[in-house]
Amino acid sequence: MASRVHGLQFNTVTPSPALLAPQSLGRCSPTKSVKCRRSRGRGGLVPCRSSLVGEQQEASPFTDPEAQLIEALIGIQGRGRSATPQQVQDVERAVAVLETLTGVSDPTSSDLIEGRWQLMFTTRPGTASPIQRTFVGVDVFSVFQEIYLRSNDPRVSNIVVFSEAIGELKVEAAASISDGKRILFRFDRAAFSIKFLPFKVPYPVPFRLLGDEAKGWLDTTYLSESGNLRISRGNKLRVRLYRVVVQGTTFVLQKLTEPRQLLLSAISTGKGIEKAIDEITSSSKNKGDGELELVEGEWNMIWSSQMETDSWIENAANGLMGRQIVKSGQLKFVVNILPGLRFSMNGSFVKSGTNAYDVTMDDAAIIGGPFGYPVEMETKFKLELLYTDDKIRISRGYNNIVFVHLRVDGTK
What we know:
Helices cover 17% and strands 37% of the residues. The protein is of the alpha+beta class. The protein folds into two domains: 64-257, Beta Barrel (Lipocalin), CATH 2.40.128; 273-407, Lipocalin. The strands form three sheets. It has an eight-stranded antiparallel beta barrel. Strands 12-13-14-15-16-18-19-20 form an eight-stranded antiparallel β-barrel. Keywords: Plastid, Transit peptide. It holds the Pfam family PAP_fibrillin. It is found in: Plastid.
C-alpha cells in the first residue's frame, strides 16, 4: 500500500542537536488504566514499555496532568518550531502545571532518569543556529538525549538520527551530579556515524579550545513516577559550528510514545504507517465502548493509502487532498490551488450504520477573492470511522481509501 504525506511539515513536538533520535520503541500494549480526554467510544492511551522501566512500570498510565501535556503536543510540527501561539500556550500551561506537582524527588539520584529519551518539544530561541534549524526542526530526523550517570564514565549525549539507512550525529558531554535536579556537563566529543562508512566522521567543533564555553548544566524540573516523561531546562544545549552557544531552553522528553504520536512520526518518515494505524484502530475496536462520532472542526489530510491518480479536481472532489470542514451535518472540501485561488465543494452526510455515514458532495466552485465559478460535479461515497478523537481521525472513504486527518482549528 503506497503512502503519501500531504503538505504536513513535521518538526518533532522544535529544538537543538542536543536531544532526539530514532524510534527504538517496543510494540505498544493496551492498558485500561490510562486516562486521556477523548471523544465518546474511544479507549485510553496505549503506552509502550521502555527497556529501562521495570515490568511493574509497563502498565503504569500517564497521570491526568501528564496526559494533558501529551494532548497539547499532538499535531505540533518541528518539535515546536512551527507551533502556533495557541499550541505553545497550551504546552507551556501543561508544563507549568506539572512543574508544580510532585514527581520523582531528586531525579538525578533516580534510576528512572537513565536511558534514551526522545525529544518531543523544545522552546525555540530567536537566534537558533543553522545547525539547530536544520537538524532539530525537521520531523524526518529523530532527536534523542541519552543520560547515563551511574557508570565509570558518566555522560549526557545528544543524538540526531537522520535515518536507519544513513546514520546519526552524536554530541557527547562528560557529566556529573550537582544536586537532586541539576546535571553539570562539558562537551568533549562529537562525530557522525554513517552506515556506509567503516569509521566515524569527527564533528568539526574544537571543544578543548572552548574552555568554559563548552560547559553547561541541565535541570530536571519534572520526572514522572513512571519514568516515561521528563521536563528539563538547560543553559547550554545548542551547538553552533565551532562554537557552543549559551541559551536557556525548555525541553519535553519521553521514553514512551503513545500511539497517536507514533502514527504522526511514522507519517513524517514514511515508514511503518500501516502498522501504526493498525495499532490505534485495533485498540479502539478492542475497547468496544460505543459509536464513533464525526467530530466537528477543520481537518487537514496528512496521509492516504492511495496516491492521487485522477485529475486534481477529481482528487479534490473525492477528498484526496486539502482540508475538510465538518459542521452541523454539513461537509466542505477546501483545496488551495494558487495564492488567492481555491477549490471548494459542499455536501452533507447522514448516519447510515455503525461508525458509518453516507456522504453526498454536490456543490462545487472555484473561488478567487469575492468571485466564484460554479463547477458541475457530484460525488457520493460511504465514510467509515476507524478511529477519532479531538486531534486525529482515521477513516475509510472514497474507493475504500484509508485517510488520516489532523485537526487544525485549535484544541478543545
